[in-house]
């Protein structure tokens, strides 16, 4: 089997496994294990597909898939009692599901952990907050400054 054929077969199998897992997320109650599996498979698919300069449509599909998994994780963790025992600690959750937040300029693992602890899993959730709510998040001063700056820049781009 040629390298190209082997790559294509590997990519197709990875996409198939991710599709199967995403369908489970759509039709079954999410579990932490299923969410971990979905994001792990997504990461594998992204690495496989981006190794060969994917099309814009493929990149957009990957972004939507990651957003769906992060939103599913958000919904799952929000419904848990605050004292629920989970296999992932907050920092591990942020590392696994926080890539979209960490893609924002100035947001790293520490700020992502802080936002996750306050129920903010996605840039959309962050940017949807009214400005006065940012101040009530009780973030450390440096994190609050970064988040406020990003929020202001995003709001400035939105037409009135």
How do the strands and helices of this protein lay out in sequence?
Layout: H1 3-27, H2 32-50, H3 56-79, H4 90-97, H5 99-102, H6 109-117, H7 123-128, H8 131-134, H9 141-157
Helix pairs in contact: 1-2, 2-3, 4-6
Provide key terms for this protein:
72% helix, globular, 160 residues, mainly alpha
Give a brief rundown of this model.
Helix content is 72%, strand content 0%. With 160 residues, it is mainly α.
Structure description:
With 160 residues, this protein is mainly α. It has 9 helices and no strands. It has helices spanning 3-27, 32-50, 56-79, 90-97, 99-102, 109-117, 123-128, 131-134, 141-157. The N and C termini lie far apart (57 Å). The mean pLDDT is 88.
What is the radius of gyration?
Answer: 18 Å
Which of globular, elongated, flat, extended, rod-shaped describes the shape? globular
Unreliable stretches covering 5 or more consecutive residues:
none
State which percent range the strand residues make up.
under 5%
How would you sum up the major sheet? none
Reading the helices and strands in chain order gives HHHHHHHHH
State the helical fraction.
over 70%
Number of strands: 0
Structural class: mainly alpha
Taking all residues together, what is the mean pLDDT? 88
SS element count, helices: 9
| Amino- and carboxy-terminal Cα gap | 57 Å
């Amino acid at each position: 089997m040629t390298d190209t054929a082997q790559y294509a077969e590997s990519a197709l199998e990875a996409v198939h496994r991710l599709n199967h897992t995403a369908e489970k997320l759509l039709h079954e109650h999410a579990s932490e294990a299923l969410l971990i599996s979905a994001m792990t498979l997504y990461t594998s698919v992204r690495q496989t597909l981006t190794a060969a300069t994917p099309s814009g449509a493929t990149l957009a599909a990957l972004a939507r898939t990651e957003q769906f998994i992060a939103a599913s994780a958000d919904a799952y963790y929000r419904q848990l009692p605050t004292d629920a025992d989970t296999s992932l600690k907050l920092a591990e959750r942020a590392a696994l599901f926080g890539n979209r937040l960490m893609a924002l300029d100035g947001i790293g693992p520490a700020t992502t952990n802080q936002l996750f602890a306050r129920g903010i899993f996605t840039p959309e959730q962050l940017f949807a907050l009214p400005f006065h709510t940012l101040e009530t998040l009780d973030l450390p001063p440096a994190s609050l400054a970064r988040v406020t700056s990003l929020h202001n820049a995003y709001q400035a781009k939105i037409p009135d």
